[in-house]
Structure formats: structure tokens, C-alpha cells
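dude i think i finally got it to work??
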Amino acid sequence: MLSRRYFIKSSGLALASFAVNPSLAFSGTGKDHPIIIVIFQRGAADGISMVVPFGDPHYHSARPQISIPAEAAIDLDGFFGLHPSLASLKPIYDSGRLAIVHSVGSPDSTRSHFDAQDYMESGAPGNKGIVDGWMNRYLQSNPDSTSTSFRAIAFSPNMPRSLMGLAPAIAMTRISDFGVRSGASSNDFARAFEAMYGRDDSGKETFEAVNMLKKANPQQFTPANGAVYPASSYGQALLQIAQLIKAGVGLEVAFADIGGWDTHANQGSDRGQLANRLREFGDGLAALYRDLGDRMRNVVVMTMTEFGRSIRQNGSGGTDHGHASSLFAFGGPVQGGKVYGKWPGLAPENLHEGRDLAMTTDFRDVLAEVLTKHMGAPANNRIFPGFAPARVLHIV
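look at this
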């Protein structure tokens, strides 16, 4: 006999209470159904290695061993260049669908991974009293009576802080976890689930949601247009997000993350530890863009990280916790082909606390613009409590 606790655990599901409309199906391609995908780089990604300010006279001297040579950087505008491991993103930039925001981050100066991630995912820097996440507050502020149970999905073992709250959301590790375990037939799986959860309304809704996903059968999909995703959990999360969009189950908000950015030692330059991580990161994003094809006309993908790295390399050939970093936004609605944000410069007198890239764009300015202009969120401070957008970047 399977217990409810074991069943949920072995199914790879983290479920919030939700309502379901199993008869509803979305194409996922029309402008009446915008989609946002958020990728969190956990560990504090080095923004000035991702988007290299090779034109700043202080860049190379601060990092004699780990700076990216100007001739190796992929030139964007004569001042900034992509790390060579992000070469797969250059065609998207050239097409005008990839925008970069530099010197972006949180106004809170914490150097704690835990606190900084919490503040960015809650959307309330410095405020530990906020319970829910900014993505969940978007869902609350923009209710949709026609939405399905798969409106908001995270590919994660646990519900990420960004999606915690009163609005319905699901976290899963793999779509296939909705299937069969331990040699049981799919009918046995369904009967067991229904027997345990089908006696009350919430259980029936859960069961209908699982059935809806099975009928869509997103496992049938193979990447289109020659897209090749990284074999890592990150790459497979992006692949499955694309599958759900194609399956037409009503996906509107998706979340995934990728770790390994805490490069205190042996960071490397155009080759090495960070270069390998950036190649996986960029190749995954490029595969998603290629796979979705014309569906990208209604999708915006955004990346974020809790803070950047120190400007000067340390004695271990790495970088320590910093302040501002850079982010990417791409998709059909994005006005790309440009590096946005005011560059503060790397002269010692311009550094944050004398050691870090200064923040000139609050990450909430970027998110608020995408949510209001692309997702149709109301222009108020409910999503980002106590914050009034200070600038419009015109990214979308």
C-alpha cells in the first residue's frame, strides 16, 4: 500500500492548491497568451565576465590573469563583448531579440547568498517580512478565470521562493515523473492516485490536472529546428518548458535555475571553470530559442542572479562576492541588439564600497517593465511592495 506522502514524493511533485479546467487548451502561440520564463543563476554570476567591458581602461589591470582578452570577447558595440563561451547567443543579439542589461542588481548590499537570493525572489530587497514571491504576486494581481492548473510551473525539487504564495503553482523535477514507477502499469498508477486523492474536491482537481498533462503527452515532442539542449538538469528543464509550451496546457509562468556560479577559486578566463559553466548556460538558452521557433514571438525569457563578483581577482585566481551584475532578456517582444543601463565605470572611485561594480539599474525596474508591458500586469506596487519604478528601459 502506498501512502499519500510516499506517492507525492515519488511522483516528483510539489503542489499548491489549484482549480482546473481540463477542457481548456491553449495554443501557446497567440498574443493573447503571453509567457515569461525566468532562469536564476544561483551562486552570484560574474557579470563582467559574461558581458565583458573590454573598452573600460581599468578592466584588464584589475584582473591580470582572469580578464577576458579583448580579442577573445565577442564584440557587441565596440565597448562590451560577450564571453566567447556565449557565442551561441550572438545570433539572437544580432537579430534584435536579445537585450542585455549591465550594472543591474539589488540595492541591498548583503553579500550573503541566502539573503540576496531571498530578497530578489521575494522582490523586496531588505524586507524579511515578505512571505510570498514576486512571481506569485504577479499571478495574484493578474487573475485569469480561464487558466489551467499548469499556469505556473517550476522545474525544481522544491517550490522556489519566487513562486511561493497564495496563487496556484506546481514544482516538478521531470514531466516523466507523472508516469510510472517501480514497474507498475500506467493504469495502476492512475488508479492508485485516484484512490488516494479522488474522494474530495481538491483531490479530484489534482487528479484531473495529472490526467490533463498525460493527455497532452509532452514526452512525445522532440526538439525542433535542430535544437540541442545540454544533457544537464538545467538543459533538460529548458527542454521540458518548451515541451509544455508546445503541448498547449496553458503555461504562462515558468521557472528554472542553474547553479555553480560561486567562483572563489580558479575562475579562469576565456577557458576554464567559468567558461564551461557559461557554455552550458548559453547553449541551453539558444536551444530554447531555436526549439520554440515562431512561438518565441510571445515569449520573454529573463535571467537573474543574486549579485555579481568583486572587480579585482583574489589570491586564488577567483573572485569574491560582489554587488551588481548583468542579465539577459530575449524573445519576440524584446527590443534587443543593445546593452542597456548606465555604465558606472571601473575606476576605483566609481566602485561600490571600493571593490564592486556599482548598481545603476534596479532589477525591479526591468521586471516591472516586462510584467506590465508584456504580461499585462497592473501598474501598481503590489508585485514589488514599496517600490515605484524609477526608469523605463524600453526593453519590450
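The two ends are 53 Å apart (CA to CA).
im so relieved honestly
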